[in-house]
Design a protein that fits this description.
16 helices; mainly alpha; 324 residues; single chain
Length: 324
């Protein structure tokens, strides 16, 4: 029965660890996968075992099976009650990150929402709470629930100002995302006022990451306001800063390239827009999974650009790639 399995697992794990036999200790610990009871202590051990298997599969590069183990861990750790809460939060944020990277927003949204609530209730991990709130808001925006995204963003700003006021980059990102959400919900006057406040507050002597982030968010805001020249200049500045100071973090270049391609098209600079589109697609294809919705969006935007430029055959070829 489960009680006997638990006792055998504890004895075997303790003996193996005491003698430096870590592989054997892990095998004993995985006995807990055979627990049949959903009582909290058995569910907790089972959930922890699934997390161990997730870590092993992730290290081996088996993302599909690793995500499946996270799903099993989450289900068990929910049954574990308070004892499993810390591990549940870790499992949720891990699953959300994986879903976000895969572009599976239908999975990412409820996972980040649940994780945010748990981090908020405990209040002991403000940085991770911040991450879940940011992702929660962005998933809502991606799924066209813009008013809800604005509400979650407001909660995140309040929490960050209270708990991590020293994290200037995080606060800037949140406030500039608020500018974007205000524009998307038709509150342009409020968006402009907040944008100007943040720009004045940061000034001209910011650290590279702050300056790059400000330029990136400025490009997004100015693009939404159809100030194409200002958006183009801000996107170019963000790209230059990211390439100079953070050359290894190439994903940081994706959003500025999107803004640059759209702003250049709006400013009737077809040559720069096409170069930005092509560079963006090359980068997205290298860094994102082939079925990622952001890559599909980039390809679709490029097809629309080609079509508007009278290059119908090229546009159709790109559209076929989107469908595929």
């Amino acid at each position: 029965n489960d009680a006997q399995r638990l006792r055998a697992m504890e004895i075997g794990t303790s003996f193996s660890s005491r003698h430096g036999l870590e592989d054997l200790a892990m095998r004993f610990f995985l006995f807990s996968l055979g627990f049949e009871s959903n009582e909290p202590r058995f569910a907790n051990f089972r959930g922890l075992a699934h997390l161990k298997r997730n870590a092993s599969l992730s290290a081996a590069g088996d993302r599909l099976r690793a995500s499946a183990e996270l799903d099993l861990a989450i289900a068990d750790l929910r049954l574990a009650g308070p004892e499993g809460e810390t591990s549940l939060r870790s499992a949720l944020i891990g699953r959300g990150r994986a879903a976000l990277e895969d572009g599976d927003y239908q999975i990412a949204l409820p996972v980040f929402e649940e994780a945010q609530k748990l981090f908020e209730q405990k209040g002991d991990e403000p940085i991770l709470w911040f991450e879940t709130a940011v992702h929660h808001a962005r998933m809502l925006e991606r799924m066209e629930r813009k008013a809800e995204a604005l509400r979650v963003n407001a909660q995140a700003i309040f929490y960050a100002e209270k708990n991590t006021p020293q994290n200037e980059a995080a606060l800037l990102a949140l406030r500039m995302e608020r500018v974007e959400y205000l524009i998307l919900t038709g509150q342009k006057a409020d968006a402009i006022a907040l944008f100007n406040t943040e720009k004045d507050r940061i000034g001209t002597k910011a650290q590279p990451i702050i300056a790059a982030l400000l330029s990136e968010k400025t490009a997004t805001a100015q693009l939404a306001l159809e100030n194409f020249d200002e958006a183009r200049a801000a996107a170019e500045h963000a790209l230059a800063l990211y390439r100079e100071h953070f050359p290894q973090a190439r994903k940081l270049q994706i959003n500025p390239l999107r803004a640059l391609s759209a702003a250049s098209a709006g400013a009737k600079d077809a040559s720069l827009s096409e170069r930005a589109h092509r560079e963006l697609i090359d980068l997205s294809q290298e860094l994102l999974p082939p079925n990622h919705p952001e890559l599909a969006r980039d390809l679709n935007d490029f097809a629309n650009f080609l079509s508007a430029s009278g290059r119908k055959a090229e546009a159709i070829a790109i559209e076929r790639r989107v469908v595929d």
